[in-house]
Design a protein that fits this description.
The protein has four helices and eleven strands; from the N terminus they run E-E-H-E-E-H-H-E-E-E-E-H-E-E-E. The protein is α/β, with parallel strands linked by helices and 162 residues long. Helix 1 runs parallel beside helix 4. The chain binds flavin-adenine dinucleotide (FAD).
């Protein structure tokens, strides 16, 4: 994270998976400038279905994406309650839970990606290190060859440092 002279805060999010894209959307919603750096040359979320639990659905709702997700999702079990083998509740949904949804990973990814400006996501750039400081992140421009290397400069040392 860095702060610009005009008070704008910027962040580099490493990885354009569901987690990274969600974090980027959330930061933009509160006014941050965000760059998502993805090492894959092309963003393609593989895999099959994903279950969205009520907490995930609530989080997507806070981001204003609940309806976009609902277009692609189908309801599964009612509230996703889980019992232990002895019958006691391990998890019991809240009264306002909307239930549990199933969605194809690629579609959730597409919804999240679509909530960010094109310029916010840079592919083919791998973050290989970082330093502690207030300098700006230096992501490579997209498109980049898959072996390009990006050095981020967050205010806290990233756990992904080699
Ligand atoms: C079989 C299976 C079923 C699952 N089912 C469910 C489910 O039903 N419901 C549910 O909620 N969760 C489920 N999960 C978990 C869920 O898929 C993960 O928690 C989620 O996808 C993680 O997203 P992520 O963005 O954190 O990580 P990832 O999807 O791993 O994305 C990380 C991204 O970061 C990029 N990256 C990594 N390092 C760098 C770097 N140094 N520089 C640049 N880019 C980098 C990678 O290329 C990748 O694109 C399941 C997982 C599996 C394996």
């Amino acid at each position: 994270m860095i702060s610009g002279r005009n008070g704008t805060r910027s962040a580099v999010v490493i990885g354009a998976g569901i987690g990274g894209l969600t974090a980027a959307v959330a930061l933009r919603r509160i006014g941050w400038e965000v760059t998502v750096v993805e090492r894959a040359p092309v963003i393609s979320e593989v895999g099959a279905g994903l279950t969205l639990w009520p907490n995930a659905i609530r989080a997507l709702g806070v981001l204003g994406l609940e309806s976009a997700v609902a277009v692609h999702a189908i309801p599964t079990v009612s509230r996703g309650n889980i019992r232990q083998p002895d019958g006691r509740w391990l998890r019991h949904g809240r009264a306002d839970d909307v239930g549990v949804l199933a969605i194809h990973r690629a579609q959730l990814h597409e919804v999240l990606r679509g909530a960010l400006p094109e310029r916010s996501v840079r592919t083919g750039a791998e973050v290989v290190g970082g330093t502690t400081g207030t300098g700006g992140p230096v992501p490579n421009s997209s498109p980049e060859p898959p072996d390009s290397r990006t050095h981020a400069t967050p205010t806290t040392a990233p756990s992904l440092m080699p």
